[in-house]
Amino acid sequence: MKLINNTTTKKPIIGKHVLDTLSIGMYNNPLMVLREYIQNSTDAIDDFCKTDKAFRSKAKITININGVNRSLSVRDDGIGIPAPKAWDVIHNLGKSTKKVFYNRGFRGIGRLGGLGYCEKLIFITKARGENKVSTSIWDCNKLRNLVVSENTSIDASAIIKNTTNFSCEKYSGDTKDHFFIVEMQNIKSSRDVLMDVPAVRSYIAQVAPVPFNKGSFSKASQIEKVLRTKVPSYETYKIYVNDEQIFKPYKDRICIGKSVTDKISDVDFIELGNGSGILAYGWVANLQLLGMIDGSENIDGMRIRIGNILIGDKDNLSEFFKERRFNSYLAGEIHIVDSRLVPNSRRDDFEDNGVKDELYDCFIKEIGIPLSRRIREMSDVRSQQRNLARYGYLVETAKKIINNGYFSTVQKKKIIDELKRIQESKKEDINIDECKTIIEGIAKSRHFLDINHKGISGKLKDTIRVIFEIIYQKCSSKQEAENTIEYIIRKVLKK
To answer: b/e map of 43-52 (b: 16 or more CB within 10 Å)?
Structure first.
């Protein structure tokens, strides 16, 4: 019996659920759709600038959000798609002529991102020199219904054919125009985030390849000059959201927690290499490392970028520090240089290979370990300073009690307990003998009334003692208790 190999005559079927996987299934945040469209726009601008280098200074990407009709559009004045190629480029999946690393979007699936978040997705494009404009309208509701239907005979290609409407018509504007527009109509997204203009601006400021704001960040020009020299794919683009240009959120003064501020006094540049070449190049802000940067500043953490677009989020590099929280003490960027470091399809990390491991090993060696050590050392110094200040305050308070008496047994006991804990810690910066003497002195101290108001009758003195005890127990803070007691002394006992 002769076996016949006829597999070469068969054509694999691409199941319909791949559309769901490649659209809403790709993203855990609706805003990531904007990242996909922006990276395609930046590639289109780069392609056009190859033929007209002077155009880069005028190129821009505009995002318009209309809350009234619940629509969002992304428009770039990049190279556009020539009319003869428009249908293929827009409708074919995973088929792209873009080059890995040299283009930010190269898998040919990013345009599907909007399918899961609107009722109608429209692509409009035109190339320079043509008098035609191409339009593709996707019926997202119909597409989703077909994907979840029980009809198993229809595949992804058939669904796209049945849910899209393509036209190529005469263009009424200037033939020199060139653009690509994405329109999302009747948007529906989690927490309505795609309609939230401040949220969109904040996301793009952190993720997209926008410039630093030279007006608020004095190191902007220095950083951009160095990165353009060291990082081949580094570029910035003018992106507007509802007519407001977006900049990276870095600035000179930043908030640490809710009440402390720090200043970026300078920046250090970092080269990550494996011995045979540079893997990445970046910068880290010089800070006093006073604590975790307030998350609302949107600059906390060392962030990793390729093509000047964020990979993952601010926590991607946190695991490479001694403690994850240490990453939030820092502000800076790592820009990929080596073309073998390729983003995965979700752009939340890189494709697995040995170079990826080398990159993270270098980061641990050059940044993770030394800066973790420095953060810990600075934290220990501040802790020591706080301990000394606290000890000094306790000693002064104890001396006052020894000389003038205590207001409450609660007050006295708390000070003795704190001094004993300090004594038992045997910290090198604490005078243990002095501490022991102070504890013995305060233990023998008398009540304030016994020292300063001996003429008060016993019954009244006992009543005032009880009042002082209650005040110390009920007041929200020791300072409030002392202020209240001093007020009573001033207004009542010295009346």
So the answer is: bbbbebbeee
End-to-end CA distance of the chain, in Å?
A: 121
| Cβ-count burial 91-110 (b if 16+ within 10 Å, e if not) | bebeebeeeebebbbbbbbb
| pLDDT of 481 over the 50 cut | yes
Q: Are 63 and 195 contacting, i.e. CB atoms less than 8 angstroms apart?
A: no
Mean pLDDT of the chain: 89
pLDDT of residue 394: 87
- Measured CA to CA in angstroms, residue 110 lies from 19, 225, 292 at distances of 12, 31, 35
Which H or E run contains 364? none
Nearest residue to 212 (alpha-carbon basis) of 132, 291, 146, 305: 305
List, in sequence order, every residue forming a beta bridge with 63; answer none if it has no partner: 74, 241
Q: How far apart are CA 175 and CA 82, in angstroms?
A: 12
pLDDT band at 24 (very low <50, low <70, confident <90, very high): low
249, 299 in Cβ contact below 8 A? yes
- CA dist 118 and 66 (Å) reads 13
Nearest to 106 by CA among 431, 339, 299, 426: 339
Residue 368 burial by Cβ neighbours in a 10 Å radius (0-12, 13-18, 19+): buried
What would the two tokens of residue 142 be?
A: 């119909």
Band of residue 93 on the pLDDT scale cut at 50, 70, 90: confident
* pLDDT at 381 (0 to 100): 86
Counting every residue, how long is the chain?
495
- What tokens were used for 42? 């930046």
How far apart CA 234 and CA 335 sit, in angstroms, is 8
Count Cβ atoms below 10 Å from residue 391 Cβ, excluding itself: 20
**One-letter identity of residue 198:** P
Q: pLDDT tier at 264 (50, 70, 90 boundaries)?
A: very high
Residues 183-201: b if buried by 16+ CB within 10 A, e if exposed: bbbebebeeeebbbeeebb
* Residues 419-478: tens digit of each pLDDT: 888 888 777 677 888 888 888 998 998 888 888 777 777 788 888 888 888 888 888 788
- From CA 140, how far away is CA 97, in angstroms rounded? 26
The predicted structure's pLDDT at residue 101:
47
In terms of Cα–Cα distance, which of 74, 75, 110, 71 is closest to 89? 110
Whose CA is closest to 265, among 248, 290, 297? 290
Which contiguous run of DSSP H or E holds residue 13?
A: none
Cα radius of gyration rounded to whole Å, the chain: 33
Residue closest to 469 by CA, chosen among 447, 444, 445, 437: 447
Pick the closest to residue 98 from 78, 115, 117 (CA basis). Answer: 78
Q: Tell the residue number behind the tokens 């018509």, with chain if given.
A: 169
Residue 108 has pLDDT above 70, yes or no: no
